[in-house]
Design goal:
- This protein is of the alpha/beta class and about 270 residues long.
- The protein is built from twelve helices and 13 strands.
- The strands form two sheets. It has a six-stranded mixed beta sheet with strand order 2-1-3-5-6-4.
- α5 packs across α6 and α5 packs across α10.
- The mean pLDDT is about 95.
- The structure holds 2'-monophosphoadenosine-5'-diphosphate.
- The site of 2'-monophosphoadenosine-5'-diphosphate has 12 residues, from α6.
- Pfam families: SDH_C, Shikimate_DH, Shikimate_dh_N.
- InterPro entries: Aminoacid_DH-like_N_sf, NAD(P)-bd_dom_sf, SDH_C, Shikimate_DH, Shikimate_DH-bd_N, Shikimate_DH_fam, Shikm_DH/Glu-tRNA_Rdtase.
Length: about 270
Amino acid sequence: MTIKAFVIGHPIAHSRSPLIHGTWLAEHGIDGSYEAIDVSPEALPGFFERLRSGEFAGGNVTIPHKEAVFELCDTVDPLAEQIGAVNTLVARNGKVHGTNTDYLGFLGNLDAGSPGWSDSLDRALVLGAGGAARAVIVALQSRGIPILLLNRTRATADKLAAEFEGDITVATLDALADAAPHAGLVVNTTSVGMHGTRFEGFDATALRPDTLVTDIVYSPLVTPLLADARAQGLRTVDGLGMLLHQAVPGFEAWFGVRPNVTPDLRARIEATL
Ligand code: ATR
């Protein structure tokens, strides 16, 4: 029997997930499908009934449903609760389990792009305190890494930090120059960098020569932040791998095979940017 999976969103046309999962299905010769389905917010409860009926093994959830699905899932992973979003659903025995694989995508991307990056890392500078910062914080804390959260608006960062236990300190972006010598990792979690926009006042020359710089923005692939870091001779990991690696656990749960993020897959997705 064909195993079926999906990505639901509204609209859904721009999702790259069908290409990622379709590539893996073909590579592994699996009798399966992965389709993009446009589901409006009103239609979401009805879609969950289809899920419980066993029509699908599961699927991905994207905008605007990542928060709304919490109420509809039978069980939700505690880490997804902490991240505040569900991006992956697994249907089994008439029940739907919600999880979030973005933090695994973040870790998988850095593990592949800069092996050993988290060994004896002193501190991570996390830029931004929005939704995407949550997955990055969960990821970093899973490796026991102390965090300095830098945000344009201090109050937003204070509020976010208060939701997490563990070592998180907060400052505004203008603290970057003082903080930079104490951090082996810089992560941009904001949308700054999309379409080539720049952080005002971000000075890459303040960073330590051994600092690794990564961005969750992947369009353009080399954001101004990464370009500035490279110009200083620093190591960088771009954000595209996070998109690819976050897809791995879902595929494994639905189709029973752990897929690889290959250069060929990356090239295929890169061609769509
Ligand atoms: P998401 O949920 O997708 O992460 P968001 O909640 O809008 O998006 O969060 C965007 C983050 O990017 C916030 O931390 C925001 O800073 P503020 O809290 O000060 O708004 C940050 N951000 C957005 N545009 C920015 C800019 N031009 N310069 C600095 N930070 C910016």
